[in-house]
Amino acid sequence: MIANLVQLATESEQNPLMPPGPELLVGTIAFAIVFFFFWKKLLPNINKVLEERRAAIEGGIEEADAMKTEAQSVLEQYKAQLAEARHEAARLRQEAQEQGATLIAEMRAEGQRQREEIIAAGHTQIEADRKAAASALRQDVGKLATDLAGKLVGESLEDHARQSRTIDRFLDELEEKAEAAR
């Protein structure tokens, strides 16, 4: 038992943080094997995966930049087409207004011309009707005057040429007086 106590005492004098020599040697060899395995096998695979991921990310960024540039180009084309369409619509609207104004002016001129024609035709018709009425009136007034004069005198005044001249002279005097009164 004493021997055991001596052995325990000698072991307790040894540094507790320092493992015994054979364990240290086995631990170091095991660490070297694991380190070598990681360095030869896992590290290249990890680096390869990281490189692929970096390439994919950079490719995605480049693709996104290209798509952004293309989208910007399409947007600018759209804006240009929209501006052109607005300009074309404004031009068409202006052209339609001008055509409308021209059409209105033409219709007014046509209406004015037709009005003048109608007025001229009305004046012509009125003048023709007035002349016809005046002629009919002359004949009727002449006949009535001749009949009246014949009844007053007591004899028939049948000389037509003379009657016409007398009636015409009388009616002409009446017209002259009417025109002078105006």
From TrEMBL:
| Protein topology in the membrane | Single-pass membrane protein
Keyword RNA-binding: yes or no? no
Sorted alphabetically, which InterPro entries does this protein's record hold? Answer: ATP_synth_B-like_membr_sf, ATP_synth_b/b'su_bac/chlpt, ATP_synth_F0_bsu_bac, ATP_synthase_B_chain
Q: Which residues cross the membrane?
A: 24-43
Q: Which residues form a coiled coil?
A: 61-102
Which GO terms of the cellular component aspect does the record hold?
plasma membrane; proton-transporting ATP synthase complex
Q: Where in the cell is it found?
A: Cell membrane
Provide this UniProt record's keywords sorted from A to Z: ATP synthesis, Cell membrane, CF(0), Coiled coil, Hydrogen ion transport, Ion transport, Membrane, Transmembrane, Transmembrane helix, Transport
Mind telling me which SUPFAM superfamilies this protein's record contains? F1F0 ATP synthase subunit B, membrane domain
Q: Which Pfam families match?
A: ATP-synt_B
Provide any one GO MF term from the record: proton-transporting ATPase activity, rotational mechanism
Superkingdom of origin: Bacteria
**Protein family (similarity comment):** Belongs to the ATPase B chain family.
Role summary: F(1)F(0) ATP synthase produces ATP from ADP in the presence of a proton or sodium gradient. F-type ATPases consist of two structural domains, F(1) containing the extramembraneous catalytic core and F(0) containing the membrane proton channel, linked together by a central stalk and a peripheral stalk. During catalysis, ATP synthesis in the catalytic domain of F(1) is coupled via a rotary mechanism of the central stalk subunits to proton translocation. Component of the F(0) channel, it forms part of the peripheral stalk, linking F(1) to F(0).
Quaternary data: F-type ATPases have 2 components, F(1) - the catalytic core - and F(0) - the membrane proton channel. F(1) has five subunits: alpha(3), beta(3), gamma(1), delta(1), epsilon(1). F(0) has three main subunits: a(1), b(2) and c(10-14). The alpha and beta chains form an alternating ring which encloses part of the gamma chain. F(1) is attached to F(0) by a central stalk formed by the gamma and epsilon chains, while a peripheral stalk is formed by the delta and b chains.
Identify this protein by name. ATP synthase subunit b
